[in-house]
Design goal:
Length: 146
């Protein structure tokens, strides 16, 4: 049964949409989870990765190595981390591309836009506003207005 009419259940169409996604959507796809400490601090699980974030690699050949993000390569869906490189046969060093889902953000590069994003995504702040449950006093207050 299909739950979301906006999403394709066809593998072919889903792959086409993924690989032809514009840069604005690729930014969101290229999100990385926050470390446990940052998750507790900001009440956010993951954010789109950006240049300047400090990350720790948790999967693959370079597992448990960390460094600063030097480049977010949206066209290839990879990030480049400082000191994670290899040497080619001709002696040149090239950065190794790592998918953002295989890293954990350990330190955020904060600017005003990023702070607003974290405030907007804060899960506890949205539940504290009292969204969802209607109190009895609100119902009686609304009845008096009519």
């Amino acid at each position: 049964m299909k739950f979301n009419a906006a999403k394709h259940s066809s593998r072919r169409k889903a792959r086409k949409e993924h690989f032809q996604a514009p840069s604005s959507i690729r930014r969101k796809i290229m999100s990385a989870p926050l470390s446990n400490e940052l998750q507790k601090k900001y009440n956010v699980r993951a954010v789109p990765i950006r240049k300047g974030d400090e990350v720790q690699i948790v999967r693959g050949l370079h597992k448990e190595r960390d460094g600063k993000v030097t480049q977010v390569y949206r066209k290839k869906y990879v990030i480049h981390v400082e000191r994670i490189s290899r040497e080619k046969n001709n002696g040149a060093t090239v950065n190794i591309g790592i998918h953002p889902s295989k890293v954990v953000i350990t330190k955020l590069h904060l600017d005003p836009d990023r702070k607003r994003l974290l405030a907007r995504k804060d899960r506890l702040a949205t539940t504290e506003k009292g969204k969802g449950k209607i109190q009895e006093s609100e119902v009686t207050g609304a009845a008096e207005l009519d």
